[in-house]
Write a structure and sequence with these properties.
The chain has 203 residues and is of the alpha/beta class. The protein has one domain: Rossmann fold (3-Layer(aba) Sandwich). It is 36% helix and 20% strand. The chain is built from seven helices and seven strands; from the N terminus they run E-H-E-H-H-H-E-H-E-E-E-H-E-H. The longest helix has 15 residues. It starts with 12 loop residues before the first strand and ends with a helix. The N terminus is likely disordered.
């Protein structure tokens, strides 16, 4: 089901992320755009491949685990990018990710993004029973173009990673739509099937 606005006249807030390397002609971008159009909300868009996301370092992880009141000015500056990404996530009701598959997994830009948002005390906390996600009550749609590797097949390392990561931070309501099987043989038919699946979700 599509998540609708919680209150009358309140727009659903959508965070739309794309990760394809292609500036044009990307199947995952076409599909994620189609889904966002159907959802018809207030959209924040980010192309992860052109966002020049900083790879995290030991200094980042040190800042992640330092209580906010104890951080240095340098640590706070280092966390500006991560704080911005987390603010966008917290503000969103729905997250739509256009996920292109590369070498059976997610794009490097999406991995860089994940490393910036999976933060203890911000996206999850440790409890006596294990980690607990803090970004609850959100809906995640992942629209994947895999070049012919079906999601859920032995070669698919995209869906398991995204499922694990977003479950970990509390976003457990997840739907995956893919243009996969048959893409290398008949891309038009494969895209048409994925678009039909999007249409059915938005009905």
């Amino acid at each position: 089901m599509i998540v609708k606005p919680k209150k009358e006249n309140e727009m659903t807030k959508i965070l739309h992320l794309d990760s394809s390397l292609k500036p044009e002609g990307s199947y995952s971008k076409q599909l994620s755009a189609a889904l966002v159009t159907k959802l018809d909300g207030d959209v924040t868009y980010r192309d992860l491949n052109t966002s020049q996301i900083t790879p995290i370092t030991g200094a980042h992880t040190g800042a992640f685990f330092t209580p906010a009141d104890d951080r240095s000015a340098e640590q706070n500056a280092l966390l500006d990018e991560s704080d911005k990404f987390l603010a966008e996530l917290r503000d969103a009701d729905i997250i739509v990710i256009g996920a292109a598959m590369y070498n059976y997994g997610i794009a490097a830009s999406l991995k860089l993004y994940i490393d910036q948002i999976v933060r203890v005390g911000e996206a999850f906390v440790y409890t006596e029973t294990g980690p607990k996600g803090l970004l609850e009550n959100k809906k995640l749609y992942v629209v994947a173009a895999t070049g012919g590797t079906p999601l859920g097949s032995p070669g698919d390392h995209l869906k398991p990673q995204l499922e694990t990561v977003f479950n970990h931070i509390g976003i457990t309501d997840q739907t995956y739509i893919s243009a996969s099987a048959g893409m290398n043989v008949d891309p038009d038919a494969t895209m048409a099937a994925a678009l039909a699946e999007i249409d059915a979700l938005a009905a």
